[in-house]
Write a structure and sequence with these properties.
The chain has about 240 residues and is mainly alpha-helical. The protein folds into two domains: about 1-210, Cytochrome c-like domain (Cytochrome Bc1 Complex, Chain D, domain 2); about 220-244. It has ten helices and six strands, in the order H-H-E-H-H-E-H-H-H-E-E-H-E-E-H-H. It has helices spanning about 1-20, 40-50, 65-70, 75-80, 105-110, 120-125, 125-135, 160-165, 190-205, 210-240; strands spanning about 60, 95-100, 135-140, 145-150, 165-170, 180-185. A two-stranded antiparallel sheet has the order 1-2. A hairpin with a 7-residue loop joins strand 3 and strand 4 (about 145-150). It is globular and about 85 Å long. The chain starts with a helix and ends with a helix.
Length: about 240
């Protein structure tokens, strides 16, 4: 028993050290997302399905659930978001899970490994990590895709948003990363940051679709508990009045 307790204690103490060792070399920027901003969520969904869905699935989410939450009709889902076909060749139904057409074997051949599903990335990594990572690609001739990432070193993912952001280079001294833009994209830095913030907001919604509803319900629960506590206190005073 003592050995078990000692082992658990060592693991708890080692966890922060391991997390620190695995942390990014570059500080994370605040995403400052707002999951109550439906327009931002809709834009984020548009960007995700335009630039990311070719490789990354969100297979724990259904099209029609996303439509209901984001105020999108079934026709809008079919026209703007559903790009896959079922085995019979028909467009994937709105009630299906959001998967990708790319086969795992093809992804492994092209990128070295299949692209991860992003359903829970916002909960595993955090929104600040997503926001900073999508803004931290830089040119690196030593990498197969020609780019590296200041947050996720040796990432095999190409910079799919390069047309919007442009290109950055690492101008820091050896062992230190300092990014500097060397080629302009279609968007200004501020505009690109907003695009990334919308994508991050959408992935935060995908990872926890009931968060806003849960927080709203939590306020009423706290108010009920406060009222119930007051009533319980009055009841206690009434029961114990004769005793005291």
């Amino acid at each position: 028993m003592k050995k078990t307790i000692a082992l658990v204690f060592m693991m708890v103490c080692a966890a922060p050290v391991a997390a620190l060792a695995a942390g990014p070399a570059k500080p994370l920027d605040r995403a400052n997302i707002d999951m109550t901003d439906t327009a931002s969520l809709q834009r984020g969904a548009e960007y995700f399905f335009q630039y990311c869905i070719g490789c990354h699935s969100i297979q724990f989410k259904r099209y029609n659930r996303m439509g209901n939450d984001l105020g999108l009709s079934d026709d809008q889902l079919r026209e703007r978001f559903i790009h896959t076909r079922d085995q019979s060749g028909d467009q994937t139904g709105v009630g299906e899970l959001i998967k990708i057409a790319m086969k795992p074997d093809d992804a492994e051949e092209w990128f070295g490994q299949p692209a991860p599903d992003l359903s829970l990335t916002a909960r595993l990594r955090g929104t600040d990590w997503i926001y900073t990572t999508l803004r931290s690609f830089y040119l690196d001739d030593s990498r197969p895709m020609g780019v590296n990432n200041a947050i996720f070193e040796a990432m095999s993912m190409p910079h799919v948003l390069w047309e919007l952001q442009g290109w950055q280079a690492n101008v820091g001294e050896e062992g230190h990363i300092k990014l500097e833009k060397v080629a302009e994209g279609k968007l200004t830095t501020e505009e690109y940051n907003e695009v990334v913030r919308d994508i991050t907001n959408f992935l935060a919604y995908v990872a926890d679709p009931v968060k806003v509803e849960r927080h709203e319900l939590g306020k009423w629960v706290l108010l009920f508990l406060a009222f119930f506590t007051f009533v319980a206190y009055l009841l206690k005073k009434e029961y114990w009045r004769d005793v005291h």
